[in-house]
Each structure stands twice: as structure tokens, then as C-alpha cells.
Amino acid sequence: MFPATVKGEPLKQPDTIKHITSSENPLIKEVLRLKQRKHRENEGKYLIEGPHLVAEAVATGTAISTVIFRSSSLSQTAPESEDLRDHLKLANVPMVALSDEAFDRLAETETPQGVMAIVARRDMAEDLFFSGKERPGASNFLVLDRLQDPGNVGTAIRTADALGVAGVIVIKGTADVYNAKVVRAASGSLFRMPLLFLASGEAAIELLSNRGIRLAVAVPDGDKPLFRESLSEGAALVIGNEGGGVSEIFREAATLRVSIPMHPGVESLNAAAAASILMYEAARQRWSENLPTNNGG
Questions:
Q1: pTM of the full predicted structure?
Q2: If I label 53, which of 79, 165, 215, 292 is the partner at 20 to 30 A Cα–Cα?
Q3: What range defines the domain where residue 96 resides?
Q4: CATH number, domain containing residue 205
Q5: How many separate domains does the chain show?
Q6: Complete edge-to-edge strand list for the sheet that includes strand 195-198
Q7: How far apart are CA 131 and CA 124, in angstroms?
Q8: Residue ranges, the chain, pLDDT below 50
Q9: Residue at 59 is within a domain
Q10: Rounded to the nearest 10 degrees, what angle do helices 271-290 and 150-162 cross at?
Q11: For the segment 114-136, what is each residue's pLDDT rounded down to a tens digit?
Q12: Pair 271, 132 in one domain
């Protein structure tokens, strides 16, 4: 999980974890604020929960404001728990502890995992998003066209990360990607995936067109099955809203209109499943093109 070394000097604050007892503490108020989308956007921060996500945040160099422990979890002597605290100290991350009762009131999960953190959002300017510096070798993008279900959004981002997509374009009307359910479903991919937030489909179409990126939509009446179109590079793969599908403006502007062949009687797929199939086919084509030729002998 962690790199062999972590950048940073030894912890400059006392080698103890501060215990917070007052419900009026500013940190508790900050956590409560960050449960609301408007404050996450205004402050450029969001919440993560669980040792896995906190460890991922440290390992990826994500900016962490504060890590908050459930008091009883500090008595755990498991190597993973001690390793996490050691790496947080090396990274100079402030750590505090709350009573179990106070922590549980703040936690989003039904069974709190003993640690949460406040981390910085990974917003990105257009030039950096399209530069390729963040994901070398990747040239396809995923466009989330007003997806509403947080689980679908998180799963799509996680799959994009796994299948080498260059970045995710989020159209206004899509569920907040820093919502607690999205964060859990993305499982650490928010720390790595470049994200670009756009106000409309029109803005996305203009931006992609100016950069020579083809627009591919998955629709039931597509011109060809997805495996008969070239999707290996330079394409923006659009996944539409769960109820209405891809919006008309994307359908009309699309360079490629593909369908996902399905068994008779099945009308449609879950948005995250459709996104996964589309991205996997694009990745499969790219991997196939890069396979070494067998010369025999």
C-alpha cells in the first residue's frame, strides 16, 4: 500500500494524538460542513473514511488536512494500524482522536472503520487535464452525462482508472463525485483520476472537437456493435443518464454511435455496467494492437 519511503520530515508537532472532547471544536464543525456539497465545493475539500482510503491518500501524495481517529481504534496493535499512523507521522499529517460516540455521529458508514480524513479535491485545469502528463500513454476519455446514482458514478471512475482512461469529464447534473457514496465506490481512484467539470454538453463537445477527440456514444440503435468500431485511442466515451440515456446533443454530435450486443429480451444495462463494457472494449483493442507479433519457428 505504501511506497518504500514517504517524503517529508519527521512530525514537527508532539508525538501524541490530540484528543478532542468539545462538540464545539472547529474541526467537528468543519466535518459537519463537508457533508454538504456546497461546502465541499467552496472549501475544495471532502471526507474519506476507512484505513484503506486513508492509506491510499498517503501513498498517492494527496493533500490531507487532518486525520481523525475513533479513540478505541488507537488501542489496536495490528501492524496495519501502526503502519498507517507511522506513515502519517512521516508525512507530517495532523492527527486527532474523538470519543467513539462523537466519531460515530460524524461517520457516514453504518459500521465506522475507526478513521476518517479531510482531503483536498483534485480539480484540474483544462490544459493539464488534456496534456497527458497525469496518465502517460492514455488518450481516451470518459464523459459522465448527468449520471444520478452515486454508486454508478463511483464505479465508472474506478473502472476508468483500472482500464487506463486518460481522464473523466463530469457534466453538470451528474451526482457529486465527492459524495460519500461515490467516494466509497471509487475506492481510491479519485486520488489518481484526472477530473474535468463542465457546465454543459455543449461545452464538452466544443472542447473535444477543438482537440480532435472523437465522440463515441453507446445507444441501443447504434450504427455498429462496439467491437466493430475503432475505440483504442483518441475517443471520448459518453455514458448517459440512467433514466434518459445519452442526451440528444451528444447523440447528434457523435462521430461514433455504437451498440452493446445483448441477449434477446434484455433491453438495457445498468449505466456503470455499460460504461465498464465500453471502456473494456477500448482497452482490449489497445492491448491487442500492442501485443508482440508471433513470428513462429
A1: 0.89
A2: 165
A3: 18-120
A4: 3.40.1280.10
A5: 2
A6: 195-198, 167-171, 141-144, 235-239, 214-218, 256-259, 224-225
A7: 11
A8: 3-14, 296-297
A9: yes
A10: 10
A11: 999 999 998 899 999 999 999 99
A12: yes
